[in-house]
# Entry
Amino acid sequence: MKKILRTSETHPLTWWLNENQDVVWIKEYKKKGGYLAFEKAIKSIAPSEIIKIVKDSELRGRGGAGFYTGVKWSLMSTDENINIRYLLCNADEMEPGTYKDKFLMEKIPHQLIEGILISSLALRVSRSYIFLRGEYIRAENILRQAISEAKKYGYIGNNVFGSNLSFEIFLHSGAGRYICGEETALINSLEGRRANPRFKPPFPASVGVWGKPTCINNVETLSNIPPIILNGVQWYKNLSKSLDTGTKIMGFSGKVKNPGLWELPFGITAREILEDYAGGMNDGLTLKAWQPGGASTEFLTYEHIDIPMDFSSVSRAGSRLGTALAMAVDNTVNMVSLVRNIEEFFSRESCGWCTPCRDGLPWIVFILRDLEKFKGHKDDVKLLEELCYRLGPGKTFCAHAPGAIAPLRSAIKYFRQEFDSCLESSQIINIKFIKGVQPNNKI
# Structure
C-alpha cells in the first residue's frame, strides 16, 4: 500500500494532521500557519475580490452535487439595504458509507472555522450556522471547544482585528434526517420546522433562513477556502490531474484490505485508490461492483475501474462522483439483497412530501423482499423498472427519490440475471391476484 507524504503544497486539507491522530487545536493550528489566510483576507482583500478568487479557482461543492462554489456565492444578494445574511454550513453528513466531513471536523476543526470566517467576509455575513448531524457527538464537542478557542483568540466576536466587522458561529445539532442534505429541508429543520423541501424559486440565495439571503456550503467545500486564499488560484488548479480543480477526500470501504479515506488529486483512477491505497480486495474475493460516492450513486462494474475520479468522467461512465467515498461489492454479495437493504434506508428516510417518493419507495422494498425470498411475480422486474422511471429525475419534488432508485436501476442494468433468477420459483407459487378494492372478508 502506498504511503502518503503529506505537505502543505500537495495536501492542503490534511497536511496538518498529527501522526497520532490527536486533534489539531488552535495553538498548533496557528503554529503551522493557520488563520493567516483569514488575516490576509480581512486586511487586504475586498469581499468581491474573494468571490472572484473562489470563482476563478473553479472550486466545486464537495457535498455531492458539484456546483461551482464561486458561482453560488455570486448569486447572493449584494443589496446594501439587506443587513442580515446567513452562511449555513451543511455538516449533516448522512450518506451511507461517507464520513469525510466527520473526519475533518474531528481532526482539524479550525480549518473549517477559518473557511467559514473567510466565506462570511466574502458574503458580508455576520452570523453563520453549522448544522451538524445529531449522531456526531464527538465532533460536536470538538467544534464547541474550537469555536470557544477562536473567540478567545479574537477571530470570532466584535471588531475583529480592530475592524468594524463582527462574526458569530452557532453550532446546531440536528435531529437526524437524510433529507436535510437537501438545502431547503435543512433550512426548515434549522428553523424548527418539519424537514420538508421548499418550493424553488425563491432560492435560498434570495430567501433562505428566516427569509434572509442564505448561502449553504458543505464542510469539505469550506475547508478548501483558506488554502485557496493563501496560495492562489493557479497553485490550486495545478493540484489536480483533471479539469476539476484541487484535491478531494476519497476512499474505499467494503471488503478491502485497508478501508479508509485519503486526500487525493482529482483525476486519480478508481483502480489506483482501490489497489494502491485500499490494498485491493481481501484474499479470495474479487471486485464485482462498486458505487463511486455513496449509496445514492449508480453501481459501476469492474470494467469501469480505470475511470478517473472526477465529476465528468464518472458521469460519462453512467454514475455520479457523489462524495467520492466508494463502496466495493465483492463477488459473494447478492445484488438483490444488497439493493433491498439500500432501498429500505431510502424508503425510511423519505420525508413523505410527494406521492411518488412516499408510496413508490415502500413498494420497491416490498417487491425486493419478495424477490429475495424467491416469491416474486414474473412481472416484478418490469414493475421495478417502471417504478425507476416513475421516481426518476423531474418526476418528484426533490432529488431524494431519483437518488434512491439510482442503485436499483443500475443493479438491474448490470446484474439482471440475479433479479430474474429470483422469479424462477414464483412460477410454481399459487399467487392470488386481486383486482380493485376488495372488502377485508374476501381477501
